[in-house]
Write a structure and sequence with these properties.
The structure is a homodimer.
Chain A: H1 6-13, H2 23-26, H3 41-52, E1 63-69, H4 73-80, H5 84-87, E2 95-102, H6 114-131, E3 134-139, H7 144-150, E4 157-167, H8 177-183, H9 192-195, E5 196-198
Antiparallel strand pairs in A: 1-2, 2-4, 3-4
Amino acid sequence: MEVYNDININQLKSADTSYPILTLLANRWSPRMFADKAVMRRELMALLEAARWAASSSNEQPWRFVYAFRGSHAYEKIFSCLSKFNQKWVRNAPILMITAIKEQFNSGKANYHALHDLGLAAGNMAVQAQSMGIALHHMAGVDWKKAQELLGVPDGFHVATAIAVGYYGGDPSALPDDLEETELTKRDRKPLEEIAIEGAWW
Amino acid sequence: MEVYNDININQLKSADTSYPILTLLANRWSPRMFADKAVMRRELMALLEAARWAASSSNEQPWRFVYAFRGSHAYEKIFSCLSKFNQKWVRNAPILMITAIKEQFNSGKANYHALHDLGLAAGNMAVQAQSMGIALHHMAGVDWKKAQELLGVPDGFHVATAIAVGYYGGDPSALPDDLEETELTKRDRKPLEEIAIEGAWW
């Protein structure tokens, strides 16, 4: 089908922006189908390296990434920690990651901003990926306690998200029907005025 | 002084990467001195628009941004909520923002990932800014209770960070001595192996 041509899907998914923004940001989306193409180790390293250079509170760098390639035992371990919903599609991704945060500063004080800073790092990763034709799909649906145990996450670190990583360009018709529909739906956001307020809320 | 030429400072601040990454990401840093140049409203809108298109859990878009231009009453309100340390330099920024998160999903369930998703949005904003020669300085040092009150942040939202926004290119010698030194120090990160682990932690 015409719409399954991946260039058209990426066009469909491109943001309808109120103000012009970088193509790298406008064209990013979170597929559940990926191209049948491996992401090589050196490519993954570029994604992680991009994450590494994000800003963080007191330069604490509270982000950690546990990654696994499809076909490995570790990939199955990560897979087993994901929600049933995510398990329906996530094997399409050649790489899976679990992210975790360091909950305290080196001083021992709780780091309220660790999750925020993980988001900055994951955002860097998404932009680097986009420049390489690689898509990320961040997932909240993780059994974090199970992941904590199965992946040997040490005390003081807390599992936060999972990330599916693969090249854009898969055929959405191979997805279950409901997910295929989402895959072909335009991206949508709240109006800018709702999220950005001048001066004060009221 | 030669080193105060802003091209040289930006070279000094450019990341020493283990793997090549986008220049936009490698060259981003968090100055405390900004160029003596206004950031126009339409430029700010491009930054906020970039934030708007980030990914979020269930597309909840839990991020909010309250912004103010230097010279306004609102700018002074935001200024008054920042830590003494941040107050030493932050007036160099022509725009200040306070960020907040929506703490619950529309369903009423707590949104553990709201802070993470705010980080994704702030990361988008940083990349858009970088492409325009604009720098962000994220701050954790905010009296969030005071900001909550002064800015009229509604129940259900929680102040998270502040952001200083301005063009790169200021003269660091105008900063207090300790901050001038930081401004001219190379950026540093943990080795990649410490933050990225294959398979499992142990």
